[in-house]
């Protein structure tokens, strides 16, 4: 076929395949970046904490070069920030950062939820309800780490069920910042079950195919997060401020 011939011609004529070499994956840089990212999401590396190259290189058993490459990758992702003559620090989200993350999530998750209605809302609602049940169990057991994981899984399912790879990629770009917000929210709800119930409302709105309820429940969930974080954590911070250099 002509299309296959064209592709064959491109493969053999437009590229110098001799320039390709076998790739080992995952590379040390990827492994280090993944571990640092996970530590930041779990709160093991706290916002504002400095990443000291000597200590980390020794713990990873690597030279500084792959460590620096991994840290540069996280810098590009917005997870780390670099202060001249001071070094690399875990990002600290300011008021406007938090507002921006939640507004972006609102748009992404509302769109995803509406797309679900054109696919299989019952299956999506079942999966979301399972994630909600895991959140309830974690709250009952007082396991905050498990609750955060189940919370994260709930929103991942929402994006998976929408069937849009581009929406999933958009969500992935603010994934770690969202997790930082979840970690900070842990102590902000006066009643931990309140956050859990908000998720059930979203699942039920999808099951009922209620577009207005979907929009309202997701909007309420996001606004609650913004209000709790910006009111209780940064009362004294100028709302136009984003990130501050560590002292």
Q: Which helices and strands appear, and what pairs or packs with what?
A:
Elements: H1 2-13, H2 28-42, E1 50-51, H3 53-60, H4 64-76, E2 80-83, E3 87-90, H5 95-116, H6 121-141, H7 144-162, H8 165-173, H9 175-185, H10 192-207, H11 211-232
Helix pairs in contact: 2-4, 2-9, 5-7, 5-11, 6-7, 6-10, 7-8, 10-11
Descriptive account of the structure:
With 247 residues, the chain is mainly alpha-helical. The protein has two domains: 23-90, Arc Repressor Mutant, subunit A (Orthogonal Bundle); 95-232, Four Helix Bundle (Hemerythrin (Met), subunit A), CATH 1.20.120. The chain is built from eleven helices and three strands. The chain has a three-stranded antiparallel β-sheet with strand order 1-3-2. Helix 5 (95-116) crosses helix 7 (144-162) and helix 10 runs antiparallel to helix 11 (211-232). The radius of gyration is 21 Å and the shape is globular. Mean pLDDT is 84; it is low at 233-247.
Summarize the structure.
The chain has about 250 residues and is mostly helical.
């Amino acid at each position: 076929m002509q299309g296959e011939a064209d592709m064959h011609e491109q493969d053999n004529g437009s590229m110098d395949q001799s320039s390709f070499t076998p790739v080992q994956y995952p590379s040390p840089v990827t492994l280090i970046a993944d571990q640092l990212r996970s530590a930041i999401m779990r709160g093991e590396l706290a916002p504002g904490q400095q990443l000291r190259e000597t200590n980390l290189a020794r713990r990873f058993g690597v030279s500084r070069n792959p460590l620096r490459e991994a840290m540069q990758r996280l810098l590009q992702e917005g997870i780390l920030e670099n202060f001249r003559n001071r070094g690399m620090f875990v990002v600290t989200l300011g008021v406007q950062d938090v507002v921006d993350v939640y507004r972006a999530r609102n748009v992404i998750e509302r769109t995803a939820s509406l797309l679900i209605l054109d696919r299989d809302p019952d299956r999506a609602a079942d999966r979301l309800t399972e994630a909600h049940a895991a959140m309830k169990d974690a709250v009952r057991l007082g396991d905050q780490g498990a609750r955060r994981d189940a919370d994260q899984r709930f929103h991942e399912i929402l994006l998976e069920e929408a069937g849009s790879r581009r929406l999933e990629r958009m969500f992935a770009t603010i994934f770690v910042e969202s997790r930082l917000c979840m970690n900070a929210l842990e102590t902000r709800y006066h009643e931990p079950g309140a956050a859990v119930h908000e998720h059930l409302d979203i699942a039920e709105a999808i099951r009922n195919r209620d577009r207005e309820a979907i929009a309202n429940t997701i909007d309420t969930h996001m606004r609650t997060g913004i209000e709790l974080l910006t009111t209780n954590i940064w009362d004294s911070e100028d709302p136009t401020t984003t990130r501050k250099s560590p002292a």
